[in-house]
């Protein structure tokens, strides 16, 4: 007669080490999914705000008006808008100091935009390393739980006079659950990490292109040709 074991029943009968490993992996999986959804919505918002600002920037509006609007919504704006504000702020500040050499003006603005670009990139990459760690470490943590569970199972079976598949199977199944949950935690994290890394690279390329294009505009405003 066969007996069906649920995962919960298997875990209740498992050793405390396997239970601890499974609890850790379930906790990590929940945090991983929370990080995935946060990053998904954050990147979607960044893309929308970047599209809006880029459309506004290239519509031919006044740079000073754009600059004041960017300062007004500094926290709520897009990374591209904050980079623009940083470059424009430095450009205006240098002009107020009566620095009129085009190269000096442009160099200062570019340095400010590069610093802002790095800050924005760091902000975009928040939680990315966590997902990478979950994807790479979780299978090994699950495997550790499985190895420990199998060792524990065979140690317990050593004192039995007769060992059959029916006595071995539940203990092995308990141990294998740890590997299964390790993979359950790792696979979504790896997929999300690769997707987000690709999206952030595309955004970074857009920001770098904007820095170059805006630098050319500032060069013309500084009197360069």
Automatic annotation (TrEMBL):
Record's keyword annotation contains Hydrolase: no
Source species, domain of life: Bacteria
Residue stretches spanning the membrane: 16-37, 128-151, 171-193
Chief location: membrane
GO BP term, example: cell division
Keyword annotations from UniProtKB, A to Z: Cell cycle, Cell division, Cell inner membrane, Cell membrane, Membrane, Transmembrane, Transmembrane helix
Annotated localization: Cell inner membrane; Cell membrane
Topology with respect to the bilayer: Multi-pass membrane protein
Pfam families noted in UniProt: MotA_ExbB
A GO cellular component entry from the record: plasma membrane
InterPro entries per the UniProt record, alphabetical: ExbB/TolQ_transport, MotA_ExbB_proton_chnl, Tol-Pal_TolQ
Domain MotA/TolQ/ExbB proton channel: 78-208
UniProt subunit comment: The Tol-Pal system is composed of five core proteins: the inner membrane proteins TolA, TolQ and TolR, the periplasmic protein TolB and the outer membrane protein Pal. They form a network linking the inner and outer membranes and the peptidoglycan layer.
Family note: Belongs to the ExbB/TolQ family.
Function as written in the Swiss-Prot or TrEMBL entry: Part of the Tol-Pal system, which plays a role in outer membrane invagination during cell division and is important for maintaining outer membrane integrity.
Protein name according to UniProt: Tol-Pal system protein TolQ
Species assigned in the record: Tepidimonas alkaliphilus
Gene: exbB_2
């Amino acid at each position: 007669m066969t007996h069906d074991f649920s995962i919960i029943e298997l875990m209740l009968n498992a050793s405390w080490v396997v239970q601890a490993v499974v609890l850790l992996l379930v906790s990590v999986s929940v945090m991983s999914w929370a990080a995935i959804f946060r990053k998904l919505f954050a990147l979607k918002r960044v893309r929308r705000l970047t599209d809006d600002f880029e459309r506004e920037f290239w519509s031919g509006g006044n740079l000073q008006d754009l600059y004041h609007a960017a300062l007004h919504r500094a926290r709520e704006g897009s990374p591209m808008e904050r980079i623009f504000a940083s470059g424009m702020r430095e450009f205006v500040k240098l002009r107020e100091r009566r620095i009129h050499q085009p190269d000096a003006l442009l160099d200062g603005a570019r340095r400010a935009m590069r610093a802002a670009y790095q800050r924005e990139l760091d902000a975009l990459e928040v939680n990315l390393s966590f997902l990478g760690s979950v994807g790479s470490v979780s299978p090994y943590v699950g495997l550790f739980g499985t190895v420990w569970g199998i060792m524990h199972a065979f140690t317990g079976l050593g004192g039995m006079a007769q060992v059959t598949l029916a006595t071995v199977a539940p203990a092995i199944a308990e141990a294998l659950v740890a590997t299964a949950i390790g993979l359950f935690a790792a696979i979504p994290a790896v997929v999300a990490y690769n997707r987000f890394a690709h999206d952030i690279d595309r955004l970074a390329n857009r920001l770098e292109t904007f820095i170059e294009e805006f630098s050319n505009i500032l060069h013309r405003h500084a009197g360069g040709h």
